[in-house]
Amino acid sequence: MPKMTLSHLEASLLFALFTSIVMGVVTKRDDRERLRYGLYVFGCFAAALVGIGWVMHFGHG
What we know:
The chain has helices at residues 8-27, 31-60. The protein is mainly α.
């Protein structure tokens, strides 16, 4: 089995993708609402990752 090597950002975005899919499917009843909510949650996860990354960058120095 081939080994998969992901950076921290790639692993976080993959987690955000799967989590947003599950949250969209579980919380909404209509397919259109599921898609919109899943994209919204993914965008929030991605924005939080970038924001927290910058905070850690400036806080570390």
